[in-house]
User: Which sequence fits this backbone?
């Protein structure tokens, strides 16, 4: 696993261009985090994807993310906090690219930056992007629901 990954906020707004450094958890810590997260997901009443999609990691992860939103905040908060403990800011990347600090709460001005950083943390640990997974899940759902309903053969005659 990489020592760290630097990411630059791409979105317009006060956080655009800020450089954050993600220092992945050790494999040991990440595995324990994943077990705790799965426990929260199971207690939240996680719905499983259809059997035919279970082999698609992207689909399973997207369902897991949806279940995390169903979990109580009290159970999810420690996991969310631990996730962000991997994120550091590089305050002056031009002059001091190797200097970072962990206290980032006052550096982030736009709430959506936090969600973007969470996605970056997951991607740094797994090589998997939640944003991409959700996009893929939407595409799969659209294809599944529209594949037979929107064919010329299924349209009523006018």
Assistant:
């Amino acid at each position: 696993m990489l020592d760290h990954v630097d990411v630059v906020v791409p979105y317009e707004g006060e956080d655009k261009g800020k450089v954050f450094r993600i220092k992945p958890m050790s494999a040991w810590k990440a595995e324990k985090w994943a077990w705790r997260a799965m426990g929260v997901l199971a207690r939240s009443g996680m719905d499983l994807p259809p059997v035919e999609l279970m082999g698609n990691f992207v689909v399973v992860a997207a369902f897991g993310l949806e279940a995390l939103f169903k979990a109580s905040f009290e159970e999810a908060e420690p996991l969310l906090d631990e996730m962000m403990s991997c994120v550091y800011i590089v305050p002056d990347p031009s002059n001091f690219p190797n200097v970072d600090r962990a206290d980032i709460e006052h550096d982030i001005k736009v709430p959506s930056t936090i969600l973007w950083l969470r996605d970056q943390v997951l991607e740094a640990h797994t090589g998997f992007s939640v944003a991409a997974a959700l996009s893929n899940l939407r595409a799969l759902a659209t294809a599944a629901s529209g594949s037979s309903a929107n064919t010329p053969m299924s349209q009523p005659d006018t």
